[in-house]
Design brief:
- There is one protein chain.
- A hairpin with an 8-residue loop joins strand 7 and strand 8.
- This protein is α+β, with helices and mostly antiparallel strands and about 140 residues long.
- About 30% of the residues are buried.
- The radius of gyration is 14 Å and the shape is globular.
- The chain is built from four helices and eight strands; from the N terminus they run αββαβββαβαββ.
Length: about 140
């Protein structure tokens, strides 16, 4: 029962932060969420805010943020950008927000700071992708 209560709190917090940062929840993936935003900085700030809000629950989330063209399929989204975001998230460790270089380039001047995480091969892509870890200097 305790796990269900924690998961319900987790889901409530995630939805609250997505809404606060003007995102759109696409779907819940068990313990994870897929959301879209009208700009990449909002997506990064949302991931950071969710991570901070989870600390009292003793939960460390792993987040990945990427931006690109998506295909809308009813209430769902698809396309390579969605796959890249999922693969970036899978490389994150507990408490970490990873972003692609595409996101880093687009949020220049947003007062967010990043640490180079290196170049990684991502399944399904012909070219490696440079990743960055979000530093906690930027405010969610």
């Amino acid at each position: 029962m305790r796990w269900r209560q924690i998961l319900d709190q987790h889901d409530r917090i995630v939805r609250q932060e997505i809404s606060r940062l003007r995102g759109r929840e696409i779907k819940s993936l068990g313990e994870g969420f897929l959301a879209t935003f009208d700009g990449p900085a909002r997506g990064v700030r949302c991931a950071m805010a969710i991570g901070e809000a989870m600390k009292p629950l003793d939960i460390e989330i792993r987040s990945g943020v990427h931006t690109g063209e998506v295909e809308f399929k009813g209430d769902d989204v698809g396309g390579i950008a969605v796959h890249v975001a999922a693969r970036v998230a899978a490389l994150a460790t507990g408490g970490q927000v990873l972003i692609s270089s595409t996101v880093r380039d687009l949020v220049a001047g947003s007062n967010l700071s990043f640490r180079d995480f290196g170049t990684r091969a991502l399944k399904g892509l012909s070219e490696d992708v440079r990743l960055f870890a979000v530093e906690n200097g930027g405010r969610p």
